[in-house]
Amino acid sequence: MQNPRPSNVIIHIVMAIALLFALFAVGTLIYQISRFTDTDDEEELRLYEKQQAIAFVKLIS
Residue 34 and residue 13: Cα distance in Å, rounded? Predict the structure, then answer.
Protein backbone atom coordinates (compact mmCIF):
# COMPACT_ATOMS: atom_id res chain seq x y z
CA MET A 1 0.00 0.00 0.00
CA GLN A 2 1.25 3.44 -0.90
CA ASN A 3 1.52 6.30 1.58
CA PRO A 4 -0.50 9.39 0.59
CA ARG A 5 1.46 12.30 -0.81
CA PRO A 6 2.12 15.05 1.76
CA SER A 7 0.24 17.63 -0.32
CA ASN A 8 -2.92 15.44 -0.21
CA VAL A 9 -2.70 15.22 3.57
CA ILE A 10 -2.39 19.00 3.85
CA ILE A 11 -5.37 19.49 1.53
CA HIS A 12 -7.47 17.08 3.62
CA ILE A 13 -6.54 18.88 6.82
CA VAL A 14 -7.41 22.28 5.32
CA MET A 15 -10.71 20.93 4.01
CA ALA A 16 -11.57 19.46 7.43
CA ILE A 17 -10.86 22.80 9.11
CA ALA A 18 -12.98 24.60 6.47
CA LEU A 19 -15.83 22.16 7.06
CA LEU A 20 -15.71 22.75 10.82
CA PHE A 21 -15.68 26.50 10.27
CA ALA A 22 -18.68 26.26 7.90
CA LEU A 23 -20.63 24.17 10.43
CA PHE A 24 -19.83 26.71 13.14
CA ALA A 25 -21.02 29.56 10.88
CA VAL A 26 -24.29 27.78 10.07
CA GLY A 27 -24.89 27.05 13.75
CA THR A 28 -24.25 30.69 14.64
CA LEU A 29 -26.71 31.86 11.98
CA ILE A 30 -29.39 29.46 13.20
CA TYR A 31 -28.84 30.64 16.79
CA GLN A 32 -29.10 34.32 15.79
CA ILE A 33 -32.26 33.70 13.76
CA SER A 34 -33.91 31.85 16.64
CA ARG A 35 -32.88 34.60 19.07
CA PHE A 36 -34.32 37.25 16.75
CA THR A 37 -37.70 35.52 16.46
CA ASP A 38 -37.85 34.92 20.23
CA THR A 39 -37.22 38.62 20.83
CA ASP A 40 -40.13 39.53 18.55
CA ASP A 41 -42.42 37.12 20.40
CA GLU A 42 -41.39 38.56 23.76
CA GLU A 43 -42.04 42.13 22.56
CA GLU A 44 -45.47 41.15 21.27
CA LEU A 45 -46.24 39.43 24.57
CA ARG A 46 -45.18 42.52 26.55
CA LEU A 47 -47.33 44.74 24.32
CA TYR A 48 -50.32 42.40 24.77
CA GLU A 49 -49.85 42.36 28.56
CA LYS A 50 -49.63 46.15 28.58
CA GLN A 51 -52.85 46.41 26.57
CA GLN A 52 -54.56 43.99 28.95
CA ALA A 53 -53.42 46.03 31.96
CA ILE A 54 -54.76 49.24 30.39
CA ALA A 55 -58.09 47.57 29.61
CA PHE A 56 -58.29 46.25 33.18
CA VAL A 57 -57.62 49.71 34.64
CA LYS A 58 -60.29 51.23 32.39
CA LEU A 59 -62.72 48.52 33.45
CA ILE A 60 -62.13 49.22 37.13
CA SER A 61 -62.38 53.03 36.75
Answer: 32
